[in-house]
Amino acid sequence: MNIQIFQLGLLGTNCYLLQKDGEALVIDPGGDPETVLNTIEENNLRLHAILLTHAHFDHIGGVESLREETKAPVYIHEEESSWLTDPSLNGSELFQVGTISTSQPADYSIKPGKHKMGSFSFEVFHTPGHSPGSVSFWFNDDAVIFAGDTLFRQGIGRTDLPFGDHVTLIHSITEHILSLPENTTVYPGHGPATQVGEEKRTNSFLI
């Protein structure tokens, strides 16, 4: 599986384009997705889905444009299904960045468990704490997990935003991420990638 990373939106949110056998998935298009769209078109990729780790404004800013251009369905955890169209929930009002809304709800709720979309097989973990509907996408065959704003290199997701909870976040990280093989690469919502083993040994928030 090929993984391309784009920093999108005001906060440079990591948007991931996964490619395999001419097919693709996009995770967290946080801003103008023009570069993502260009890559999809240039490589003649079939986009199966737009997957959201959670619905904070900096992760959803490019959702509607990408959906309109590709007709790919949007997936999010049911606990944040109403956040996409509600600036008071997705944080765009709180941070005064303007009304960021997809104007349309997600097409599907993504549930914990194993999923297959085209050539892609992965497992969804419900990893709340940063937000109540946060999820992580684990691709076992490739030893990678896309953790959104749950776990960062030498850091963890903030829990001082509405509906955040520190104890819940630590539980999510411990149960669903640190329990994975140590060579699992963790792709976060912001900043560089890391590995499970490195965070277990050196992340001061988890020791």
UniProtKB/TrEMBL annotation:
Which Gene3D superfamilies does the record cross-reference, listed alphabetically? Ribonuclease Z/Hydroxyacylglutathione hydrolase-like (3.60.15.10)
InterPro entries documented for this protein: MBL_Glyoxalase_II, Metallo-B-lactamas, RibonucZ/Hydroxyglut_hydro
The cofactor(s) it depends on are: Zn(2+)
Does the keyword Zinc belong to this entry?
yes
Residue ranges occupied by any Metallo-beta-lactamase domain in the UniProt entry: 12-190
Q: Please name one Pfam family that this protein belongs to.
A: Lactamase_B
Going by the entry's taxonomy, the superkingdom of the source organism is recorded as Bacteria
GO MF terms here are:
hydrolase activity; metal ion binding
Q: Does the keyword Nucleotide-binding apply?
A: no
Could you list this entry's UniProt keywords, alphabetically sorted: Hydrolase, Metal-binding, Zinc
Cross-referenced PANTHER family: HYDROXYACYLGLUTATHIONE HYDROLASE GLOC (PTHR46233:SF3)
> This protein is called what?
MBL fold metallo-hydrolase
Tell me which species this is from: Allobacillus salarius
Taxonomic path: Bacteria, Bacillati, Bacillota, Bacilli, Bacillales
